[in-house]
User: Fold Hemerythrin-like domain-containing protein from Exophiala bonariae.
Amino acid sequence: MVPSTGPFEWASTPFTMIATPKHVQNLSDTKTDEYVEAASSMAVFHNLLLRSLNTIYLQAPHVKDGDKKAFVGYAYCWYDAIDAHHTGEEQEFFPWIEEAAGEKGIMDANVEQHKIFEKGIKEYGSYLRSLKGKEKTFSGDHMRSIINSFGPPLHQHLSDEIPSLLALRKYGDKIHLNELWDKQSIGKFTLHSAATRIPFYLCNLDRTFEDGLWKDFPEVPKLAKDFMGNWVARLNGGYWKFGACTMTGVPKELYAKGK
Assistant:
């Protein structure tokens, strides 16, 4: 059961989650093709981005001065995550798909959508960077206004990208979508991602989503997940209290709440 957060509905608003094709098609106990698998994995990751953006939007006006430095750091993790995701798509994932299909331009519509909200996301990152050393001047209302400028078209894009991946099924076995998804450099561990990006993912990955269908997502050894959640996350420990979930993926009450 999702915990109550006063006037808020946990981290499920204002941007709603995206149903995965695997769940929609009731394929939880069925072997599926790689198009359904890859599109579903993409949806789970997109939901992580939306859920974490919700935590920032909902908590921003209620963060106390003593927590603002940590919150700014946490909020910047979202910028780092979305920037890495879309850079990875444009430089690796989409070109690889087009190369495998033998057809240029089939992913152009997705890239064009990136341009619609690019300016707003850059403003988001620039604002947070401008607060370095003066985090107490952070304005939750200003943060919300920036998110309002790009949030709706971003949500539309993250939703639209799922059927666009499913539509690639027409290329049959020419495209090994799961392999292309897995080999993106965004998914490889670096010192930076180990200290910030990975813990940010963990505390916003709801493992109860769709009746627990994604409780083992991603397929990483439990020992590695425990190490990241219990030890590496301590490097920026003040950040993760703002997450939607515990490090084990259990939904939790939002830390900064209104009255």
